[in-house]
Specification:
The chain is mainly α. It has 23 helices and eight strands. Helix 9 crosses helix 14, helix 9 crosses helix 17 and helix 10 crosses helix 12.
């Protein structure tokens, strides 16, 4: 008779793993919350990405430089070479999320073993594309998927939900107003932002996460089994790991371990053996076995190569596809056209950000004004989800350089505040037809007043205009001095014209100087 599920959950190995999983997951959430200008040191909050060998090594290949901070990824590599793919079963926050939402009864759809090859295809494509300076496929890295979803979707939704709850409570229960203020003062700014968070297309990133979670209904840890490129990388290293699972002579052949394995890699037809590259070292098999038929032992001999592992012809084909894909992205005529409002964070344009950005979203999260947003169309397919400035949503704060400081791979250079204030990210251009002073002869000098530079990049020309009834009116009209403007965008943000601003920051290359 098989032991009940509740019984084996109290096994010391399972308790240890689950404890470490939750500690790692809570640490991920805590570092996410404290990723802000006045939060923890930036080298601390971005540690998850610097521990990630996929993003750090891919960026090193694409950027042609190995950063000092990237050495942390060697810790993950070393642990993998000793303990196998334990990162996936013990530390990965996305893996913990999948465990948290694992359904008790799935759809029982049998997925071909050959599908395990998909993650290897994706990994090889990422590496080959990185050789040609393209990191677009890093949108499929598991840590970036989870961090982006939290940044632009889940966290803003939580914040807005609490704001609405506070409002409803205050309106319907006036006597509770003092308690609402006490709770709000505790939450803000310690755990939630002071101002509402506004991001474009947040549903896209949350939907991606929801789909990954929903795939659990087809097979537990479907993402880890078949799709995760980081899992592929760690799995291939696990082939030569020092510690591996082994089936002992006491194995009763009861199928308990087969049912308990979250990656479905323990096969009765294979004498209950398992592939180390697919094993997440969760130890469910040792905990549930009634006869101690599973053990993890020192086994330095390399594991065999399976049919779903990368093959030579397949690798050559992916190399050809990656080469062609990158060529088409870079050389097609549309890629040569610079989007008028493609504004990168300070220093990004000069630093070749598109070839270095890992799409992690750290800069989006840390920006205090919501000015930095993941790009959708502005940077083209090559720059999908790289950071851009949308200055109608928020200005590039003149007193902030956090985006460059928090970037784990220095795709946004870590400029000092003095350097950042001198870095030109765009040029403000006035639409005279929409401008109140130019097109409507209505007094308005907001853009000039808000310009933070000294001397100001926006000055006022005084002209006399004749009104409909014949009277003469002195109007001050704003004029942008291109040689002084740095494109911070506060003029666009504060412009009182409804809808599209009458003054907009444009890419330097698209402005007639």
């Amino acid at each position: 008779m098989l032991p009940k599920r509740l019984k084996w959950q109290y096994n010391p190995a399972i308790i240890s793993r689950q404890a470490i999983q939750w500690i790692a997951f809570i640490a991920f959430i805590a570092l996410f919350v404290w990723t802000k200008r006045d939060g923890l040191p930036f080298d601390v909050v971005n540690i998850w990405f610097r521990l990630n060998p996929l993003v750090t090594f891919a960026e090193a290949i694409a950027g042609r430089v190995l950063l000092t901070g990237s050495a942390l990824a060697l810790i993950t590599v070393a642990l993998t070479l000793v303990f196998g793919r334990a990162w996936c079963g013990w530390l990965c926050p996305l893996g913990t999320t999948l465990d948290l939402f694992e359904p008790k009864r799935g759809l029982k759809i049998k997925v071909p073993e050959s599908w395990r090859n998909i993650k290897h295809i994706l990994l090889i494509a990422i590496v080959f594309a990185a050789i040609f300076g393209n990191l677009t496929l890093l949108i499929f890295d598991p840590i970036t998927i989870l961090f982006r979803a939290f940044t632009v979707g889940l966290y803003p939704a939580l914040d807005e939900g609490i704001r609405q709850l506070e409002t409803v409570t205050y309106q319907n229960f006036p006597d509770a107003g003092e308690w609402v203020m006490i709770v709000d003062s505790f939450l803000r700014p310690n755990w939630l932002p002071i101002r509402s968070l506004i991001y474009r297309d947040g549903w896209v990133y949350v939907t991606m996460l929801i789909v990954i979670i929903a795939l659990n209904w087809i097979a537990p840890r479907f993402w880890c089994r078949y799709l995760c490129p980081l899992g592929s990388m760690l799995g291939l290293m696990s082939k030569v790991a020092l510690v591996k699972r082994r089936v002992t002579q006491e194995c009763p052949g009861c199928l308990a371990c087969t049912r308990a394995c979250p990656t479905g890699i323990i096969k009765p037809e294979n004498t209950y053996d398992s592939d180390p590259s697919e094993c997440t070292m969760c130890m469910n098999c040792t905990a549930i076995c009634p006869q101690l038929g599973n053990e993890f032992v020192f086994a330095p001999a390399p594991a065999k190569w399976n049919t779903y592992d990368p093959q030579r012809r397949q690798t050559l084909a992916i190399f050809g596809a990656a080469t062609l894909g990158v060529f088409l992205l870079k050389k097609n005529p549309f890629a040569q056209l610079i989007h008028k409002y493609f504004i990168q964070p300070p220093g990004g344009r000069e630093n070749n950000l598109l070839s270095k950005c890992i799409r992690c979203g750290e800069c989006v999260r840390v920006c205090p004004t919501n000015a930095i947003q993941p790009s959708v169309t502005e940077a083209g397919a090559e720059g999908l989800w790289t950071p851009i400035l949308v200055t109608r949503l928020g200005q590039c704060d003149y007193g902030c350089n956090s985006c460059g400081q928090v970037c784990p791979v220095q795709a946004i250079p870590p400029l000092s505040l003095e350097e950042k204030r001198k870095t030109v990210i765009g040029i403000a251009v006035i639409d005279k037809d929409r401008c109140l002073a130019w097109g409507k002869n209505t007094p308005c000098i907001v853009c000039e007043e808000m310009c933070p530079l000294s001397p100001k990049a926006i000055t006022l020309d005084e002209v006399y205009v004749r009104k409909d009834r014949g009277e003469t009116l002195l109007i001050q009209r704003p004029v942008v001095h291109n040689d002084k403007c740095i494109g911070c965008g506060i003029c666009e943000l504060k412009c009182p014209v409804e809808g599209v601003s009458a003054i907009r920051v444009q890419a330097i290359e698209t402005v007639e100087m």
